[in-house]
Amino acid sequence: MEQFFLLIMLALGGSAVAGSVKVISQGNEALVERLGSYNKKLEPGLNFVVPFIDKTVYQETIREKVLDIPPQKCITRDNVSIEVDAVVYWRIVDMEKAWYKVENLQSAMVNLVLTQIRAEMGQLELDQTFTARSQINELLLRDLDIATDPWGVKVTRVELRDIIPSQAVRESMELQMSAERRRRAAILNSEGEREAAVNSARGKAEAQILDAEARQKSVILQAEAEQKAIVLKAQAERQQQVLKAQAIAESAEIIAQKIDSNPTANAALEVLFALGYLDMGSTIGQSDSSKVMFIDPRSIPATLEGIRSIVSDKPDSLINGR
């Protein structure tokens, strides 16, 4: 009997010792009540409580958690029905407030987020809900963080996932987008045609300018070439006349010398002067500045007779004029 009583005492003592030891995992915290009132908070690690007097009433993680908000219907400021769902990132920063300030913390947060989403969407028009999503997220984060602060909760991030208009609204939006695309395509097409026309006209104008410049350069070069040809021809004619004059002078000098030694050379001198006279007429007739030259054939013998008399009377003058 005594042994049985001893075994009972040992069992009770062992259960009491086991009940007095509490091991809290890293990232968690626990609340302990003593005789129905809050006593202390258990930190991660090994903790001791009074058996049968202290009671662990709440144990939760203090790590960040994700709260999935189901889709809900909202009405925008322009009376368009949409469905919105979101995801909220949050964590407990004060375990005592999270347990004693609100009942069923997660349910309270879901309803609070839904209310805030409806309020924010009701202040925006449909187009703004798609373009101002980041601003909506910031507003929800600020409002939820302020609202949950008395519950010992810190909201770190809020993200709207899907904003889905009703079927009728989606169809009208698709029609609007299709019309907008057609309008942009027509504008781009007209701008392309205009640029093509401008480029074509610009190309034609540049081609005409280049063609005119080429013709102008061609005319200038041709005029310069003709001018050079005229100058060269005049120089050649002048040089030819000079050479002929020199040849006649040299011939006259030689004939004059022969006259002194041979009186019969007068006939040759007469022929030479006659040929020079006729050659002068041919040269004048070939000149570009000459038009018409009249020569009386009957005057040629008289001219030759005059030359003969000059040569026969004054042979010495030719010789002295060497």
UniProtKB/TrEMBL annotation:
Keywords: Membrane, Transmembrane, Transmembrane helix. It is a single-pass membrane protein. SMART domains: PHB. PROSITE patterns: BAND_7. Its main location: membrane. Residues 19-177 form the Band domain. It is found in: Membrane. It holds the Pfam family Band_7. InterPro entries: Band7/mec-2_domain, Band_7, Band_7/SPFH_dom_sf, Band_7/stomatin-like_CS, Stomatin_HflK_fam. It comes from the Bacteria. Belongs to the band 7/mec-2 family. This is SPFH/Band 7/PHB domain protein. The lineage of its organism: Bacteria, Bacillati, Cyanobacteriota, Cyanophyceae, Nostocales.
